[in-house]
Specification:
This protein has one domain. The protein has nine helices and no strands. The chain is mainly alpha-helical. The longest helix is centred in the middle third of the chain and has 28 residues. Helix 2 packs antiparallel against helix 4, helix 2 packs antiparallel against helix 9 and helix 4 packs antiparallel against helix 5.
Length: 227
């Protein structure tokens, strides 16, 4: 009795670490951490953050508060914003490793390429938090890398999902989101829109880039790699 119980306890962590359920949980948890950290950072910045004139990255600038209102001190929102992005990138990369298994088992090269690009996108997202806005050049490279790889991988993954009958709906969602990201990327920062800051198009692209994960994770949690 004791021996079987010990074997069961030792087997559980290993099976869970390599289970599709862990991947599904990370796929949902990663974006939630990111959006929650943005919400907390905005809540800590009511006197100066403005959706129409600011960029989301302003929330991660360690001295933005003092720079805008002339008072000394650090921006209290910065650790939440930057830390949240780093954690989102790491947790979502774990999801990507499980998504990669789904495509690998089907020898779906397009899906594997799309997943690798999504992992790169999440690495860029984490680097946005590491290289905050005060570190101008590396921050700009990380931010541009994140958004450009995000729209490319959304379209590629959409095509890969559409090719699999059981994930066709998820593929259509990913393709639509990829189109939304593309349009926002090239129109959202133009003179055709009423805002002068980057926060609104950045949020639109972030939501579109992650929303397809929800139905994929639900299916992955229920059916495993056979989804």
């Amino acid at each position: 009795m004791t021996s079987k119980s010990t074997e069961s306890q030792e087997a559980f962590p290993e099976s869970f670490l390599f289970s599709s359920r862990l991947g599904a949980i990370c796929g949902i948890l990663g974006p939630l951490i990111g959006f929650a950290s943005i919400a907390i950072a905005i809540g800590l910045s009511p006197t100066w953050f403005n959706w129409w004139i600011n960029a989301l990255s302003d929330l991660g600038h360690p001295a933005m508060l003092g720079g805008l209102n002339g008072t000394p001190g650090l921006n209290p929102a910065a650790p939440y914003f930057n830390g949240g992005l780093i954690l989102t990138g790491i947790v979502t990369i774990i999801f990507c490793t499980h998504l990669l298994m789904f495509f690998y088992l089907r020898k779906n090269i397009i899906g594997m390429i799309g997943t690798f690009l999504f992992m790169i996108s999440m690495a860029f997202l984490a680097l946005v938090g590491v290289y905050h806005e005060a570190l101008l050049f590396p921050h700009a490279i990380a931010a541009l890398g994140f958004f450009f790889t995000l729209f490319i991988c959304s379209i590629i993954l959409g095509i890969a999902f559409v090719r699999n009958p059981s994930t066709r709906i998820e593929g259509i969602i990913a393709l639509i989101m990829g189109v939304i990201i593309t349009i926002t990327l090239f129109v959202g920062f133009s003179n055709l829109v009423p805002w002068t800051g980057a926060a609104i198009p950045e949020m639109i692209m972030a939501i579109a880039g992650f929303i397809w994960i929800i139905p994929v994770c639900i299916r992955m949690y229920r059916y495993g790699y056979e989804m």
